[in-house]
Amino acid sequence: MASKIKKGDLVKVLSGKDKGKQDKVLEVFPDKDKLLVDNVNKVKRHTKPTQGHAGGIIEKLLPLPAARVRIVCPACKAAVRVGFKTVKDKKVRYCKKCAAVIDK
Ligand SMILES: [Zn+2]
């Protein structure tokens, strides 16, 4: 199955502590069905001081399940489901709400 969400897409979070947030997909992990979204699923990690490193609190982004986000359609600006269709022998994604083609 082709991936519905790709790196660089704008997505909206549907559930969890970051519900309602919109940001860009930084990385996709198709084998795990997870993705990394900018500013979403941020956790704080305490690091111990090491040689040459002061230690302290660092913020890290964790991948979240792809099912928890939906793509934001560039045309109608809604969080939508996408479908696939073939245009000029190329498989493209389209918005199931307004039918706009998402891939250029
Ligand atoms: Zn749309």
From TrEMBL:
Protein family membership: Belongs to the universal ribosomal protein uL24 family.
Q: Which PANTHER family match?
A: MITOCHONDRIAL RIBOSOMAL PROTEIN L24
- The protein depicted here goes by the name Large ribosomal subunit protein uL24
**What Pfam family does this protein match (any one)?**
ribosomal_L24
> What are the KOW domain coordinates in residue numbering?
4-31
One GO molecular function term? rRNA binding
Q: Which key words are in the record?
A: Ribonucleoprotein, Ribosomal protein, RNA-binding, rRNA-binding
InterPro entries, alphabetized:
KOW, Rib_uL2_dom2, Ribosomal_uL24, Ribosomal_uL24_C, Ribosomal_uL24_KOW, Translation_prot_SH3-like_sf
Domain of life (superkingdom): Bacteria
Keyword Isomerase in annotation: no
Subunit (UniProt): Part of the 50S ribosomal subunit.
Which Gene Ontology BP annotations are present?
A: translation
Recorded hits in SMART domains, A to Z, give: KOW (SM00739)
